[in-house]
Design brief:
Elements (H helix, E strand, L loop, with lengths): L3 E4 L2 E4 L4 E7 L8 E7 L6 E6 L6 E3 L7 E6 L4 E6 L8 E11 L4 E7 L3 E6 L1
Parallel strand pairs: 2-11
Antiparallel strand pairs: 1-3, 3-8, 4-5, 4-9, 5-6, 7-8, 9-10, 9-11
């Protein structure tokens, strides 16, 4: 029902910035919380950041807090991840995902995923 396409990845030197975008299809974009995840070679997928449907609340993994900023523009059906002060350990494939909050479990269920975009940070 929701198609997600990430863009903006590439090669960047350590300490530099990069902004990722995730464009979503559909007319109900604002009804979904959105998250960013990443997976480095040989490692499991990890949570990076999440933003509520209205954009009123955000949550970050400790590893990126203070460096990354998640935002969204519901008029453009797009969520962003602004990454600053990048480190080589940030190198990974970054995925965006759309989630619904399940009241019964008090957990977010990520239902739709993009194809990912590669971010490589050189030292």
């Amino acid at each position: 029902q929701v198609q997600l396409v990430e863009s903006g990845g590439g090669l960047v030197q350590a300490g530099g910035p990069l902004r990722l975008s995730c464009a979503a299809s559909g007319r109900t974009f604002s009804s979904y919380a959105m998250g960013w995840f990443r997976q480095a070679p040989g490692k499991e997928r990890e949570f990076v950041a999440r933003i509520t449907g209205s954009g009123g609340d955000t949550y970050y993994a400790d590893s990126v807090k203070g460096r990354f900023t998640i935002s969204r523009d519901n008029a453009k059906n797009t969520v962003y991840l602004q990454m600053n002060s990048l480190k080589p350990e940030d190198t990974a494939v970054y995925y965006c995902a759309a989630a619904t909050f399940r009241n019964w479990s008090k957990l977010y269920e990520y239902m739709y995923w993009g194809q990912g975009t590669q971010v490589t940070v050189s030292s």
